[in-house]
Amino acid sequence: MDIRICLLLAAEAGLALVLLWSAGVLRKPAHVLCAVLLLAAAFVLRGLCLNYETSDYTQFLTVWVNFFRTHGGLATLRESVGNYNVPYLTFLALISGSSLPDLYLIKLFSIFFDVVLAWSVMQLVGLFRREAVWKLAAFFLVLFWPTVMLNSALWGQCDSVYAALAVLSVYLVLAGHPVLGVVSIGASFAFKLQAVFVMPVFLLFWLTRRVKLRHALAFPATCVVMVLPAVIAGRRLWDALTIPFQQTGSIGTGLNYNSSSVFALFTEVRDPEIAAKLGIGAAALVIVLLAVWFWLHRDNCSDRALVLAAALLAVAIPFFLPHMHDRYFFAADALTLALAAAWPQLVLPAVLCEFASLLGYHAYLRMRYLLPMADGALALIAALVILAAVLALWFFYTLIRVFTKRRSLLRWLAGVLLGVSAGLFAFVGLWGLNHFGPSVGQTLGLDVREYSKQELIAATAYYAAQANEYAARVDRDADGKTVYPAFSELAAQAPAGYAALAERYEQFTGALDPVKPLASWRLFSQTGTTGIFVCFTAEACVNPDTYTAWIPYTMCHELAHRQAVAAEDDANFCAYLACMASGSDDFCYSGAFGAYVYCHNALSKVDKTAASQIWSTLSDGVVTDLRAANEHYAQYEGKVQDAAQKVNDTYLKAFSEESGVQSYGEAADLLIAWYLENNA
Fold this sequence. Notes:
This protein is an all-alpha fold. The protein has two domains: 3-245 and 258-432, no CATH class; 440-678, no CATH class. It has helices at residues 3-22, 29-49, 55-71, 86-95, 102-126, 132-144, 146-154, 159-174, 178-191, 201-207, 218-226, 228-233, 237-241, 243-246, 272-296, 303-320, 330-342, 347-365, 373-404, 409-430, 440-444, 453-471, 487-493, 495-502, 521-526, 551-562, 568-581, 585-606, 608-615, 620-634, 639-654, 667-678, and strands spanning 475-476, 482-483, 516-517, 531-534, 539-542. The protein has a three-stranded mixed beta sheet with strand order 3-5-4. A two-stranded antiparallel sheet has the order 1-2. Strand 1 and strand 2 (482-483) form a beta hairpin. The longest helix has 32 residues, at 373-404. The termini are far apart.
């Protein structure tokens, strides 16, 4: 390594020592000695990484520097070079005239901002911890944090720049310097688009009166100043200012790029476009929730809560947004680390975020996965739960005050809005995204396609014969209708089918509990509802008023949702599999009965004659149950049921089941595929 590079690295270490001294944290000789030793270790580790070249460097960074070198340096800023913002391109243009290797200068620049980031975190922690030891701990935690070192010294990325400025902006506002805080976040955004993960905290600052509306004028002014080198070189101002938004087109169309985002949990999605919009909506909802929350608490909001909110935003926004890359949780790493340094009780979110980020770093730097990215997503979910839980305690306390102290109608409505939004957010997070996962057919390897009429006829005849077989094995009353054991007994037996399936298919290894009866079942009968899955409590509930022959099948349908099977056609098919795997004649009959009905309905649409012929082969018991079921549900037909059907139809279409309630009949495709695979 060039001696000049060693001297520059030592100078940065010296700068770090000066910053610590000026901050007044080196009050004792022991503190000075400790700081010197730790700085030496931190910078030696970085020096050992300087020679490493990544593909980002060889394919992009050095290419851009060489372009500046051969086309006139700073004057080349008038042209569109690379996809980074003007401030970083200005740096690359400046170093293009240096005799020192590009690789070292690029990394030393980022390492310099590692120091700035450490100082910013230290200052932020110092607002809550006055003791020198806590500040020193915060400073060196940042310098030794794995992703901070890897990002700058090994990878040669510049995420420490925007993150340092973003953390600094939070500190400046809370320290009583709102204009400087806005300038700092403006500089962060001008440097890198990922600053948007932290920027919404300034909405909270405004709602809690830390920042005034006029202070916002410093943001565009800062952005203009940051792009002046390109403007002076001859580039149009508007073109230079909009580079961050032009970058969105280069992020890619994939839902996930080695990131521990929510989309890492879904290897395949049915409709990526809708899934992306849903993710954007979830991220926006996080901001709305926090905005309402802090508006309700604007008179007594603590700085601690605002720092916590900044960290939560930095984690939640990239977690829900589509197209996220491996380094996009860098600001989250820094802010959760600041929380851990200020309040050791919150160390777990910092560790979880770091774990999630390191999985992405490993995937890029080593070109292989250490663990599935889904593990990182689960870690971030746990971090979000912890961070949100801390705020939730305050939230529920405030709700009580809103109702007990006769607050204004506006505040009451805001509380209602917050509650509804929280419910929607929880619904999407706990259940809604399952609609975009791989279908059961894909998971089980079934060849689901368009089938011929003859294949449909054969499948329908098969399930009719199966229904006849098991119809002879169940108890019946004097009228020939099926008689089953008590609802509670069937409910306890229902999980057995999925337990048997779990031995063959990983798809069905989720937890199972006995099915519960629906309360107020008469109301549900009026709406035509035979069962529901309550995602908030993970409870499968069935209407006891369901016709007897359908009850076991309906129980297994709702338990399929408990296995994260969201689509209705998939759940109907899973219900059949579970019934047939249960080992119970009662469940086997109900499963075969349901399978025949779905295939018969599909066949009736294309060949009524063939459907009638197969109907004529049904045993008296099956025919009796079919007619009794129709009579049972006919009594509830009316406007209430029509309205409920429209609501359900809208819900299904919102989650990409384009056929709406008709998707309940599309299980026939899966049933045909299953028949052909097992009877070929």
